[in-house]
Amino acid sequence: MTDTVGIVIVSHSKDIAKGTADMVRQMVGSEVKVAFCGGNPDGGLGTSVPLIIDAINDAWSAKGVAILVDLGGAETNSEMAVEMLEPARRDRVVVCNAPIVEGAVMAATEAAGGSSLAQVKAVAEELSAD
Amino acid sequence: MSLQPETFKSLVKVAAEQVIASAPELTSLDQAIGDGDHGINMKRGFEAVLGKLDAISTQPLDEALKMIGKTLVMTVGGASGPLYGSFFLAAGEALSHDRHLPDDLADVFGSGVNAVSARGRSQAGEKTMLDVLVPVLETLRASAGQPDLIGRVRATAAEAVERTAPMQATKGRASFLGPRSVGHIDPGARSSCVLVHAVCASLEGQQ
């Protein structure tokens, strides 16, 4: 695997997170590291900071990690998870303001071409432009 | 108002128990204008705090507040985890930097309120927990050193919760409802009030 930006998918629903990851893998195979998580610490709908931290570390790449989220709590918990990473990793993880499924597929496709973290984020966020 | 280790321990215990007891009410408020998980999320978080109560209460106050914050962040499972977590993390951080209780209570509380505002990218008036926390902070500043400070804080929090009912939510899941969010008390404001009232009751009991 050449070094590419990793992708993390954070949904309130584990099924949505897994399904989105499946769609990403269909596009990029194993060229890009993809990790996902969904559900609160009890397994119900929600998100979990420890699970997000694990997913970031699973998808870790020296080029950084782009996180795609669904609704508000997923974003807030993802931002919190990023702040709780070790300092060396904290600055190389971004939360993208993009629709989760389309954003993840676009971001991963961009990442597969070897783009930088900033480029990957920009491509995902074009979906939210206008 | 002094804060001895045993006082602090019982204060945290009372606050956690009050939040846990209010879970059904928080759930019902959140079912009206949100996703209905605020009660169960807060209950999970504060049960985790109770589980660590012995470890928390043997720490210096700044570290104890940070431990409460981190526990909430790691266990709540909704946006309220990072929001309340950031409050306690920032309040603890303020105490680590030359702030002392009770003299700097308003400053320390204010650090927590600022952290909530930054984390949620939100201000008072948007039908959130800030609509209780900000008025409470104002009362802490305006009435610092007054003998009836606790009573004023209690009244401020109670009135502030009611004032969220006519507000239209512009942050969080309730904002999806637009004008239909009007007429309901905000669940986050209510949980903030439960916490503030629990601390007031605990401190009054210690006097």
List descriptors:
heterodimer; A: 130 residues; Rossmann fold; four-stranded parallel β-sheet; 6 helices; B: mainly alpha; Serine Threonine Protein Phosphatase 5, Tetratricopeptide repeat; globular
What does this structure look like?
The complex is a heterodimer of chains A (130) and B (207). In chain A, 48% of the residues lie in helices and 15% in strands. Chain A is α/β, with parallel strands linked by helices. In chain A, α2 crosses α3 (72-83) and α5 runs antiparallel to α6 (117-125). Chain A starts with 5 loop residues before the first strand and ends in a 5-residue tail after the last helix. The model of chain A has no long low-confidence stretch (mean pLDDT 95). By secondary structure, chain B is an all-alpha fold. Chain B has one domain (5-206): Alpha Horseshoe (Serine Threonine Protein Phosphatase 5, Tetratricopeptide repeat). Chain B has 10 helices and no strands. The mean pLDDT of chain B is 94. At the A-B interface, α3 of A face α3, α5 and α6 of B. Chain A: This is phosphoenolpyruvate--glycerone phosphotransferase. Chain A: InterPro entries: DhaM, DhaM_N, PTS_EIIA_man-typ, PTS_EIIA_man-typ_sf. Chain A: Its EC number is 2.7.1.121. Chain A: Homodimer. The dihydroxyacetone kinase complex is composed of a homodimer of DhaM, a homodimer of DhaK and the subunit DhaL.
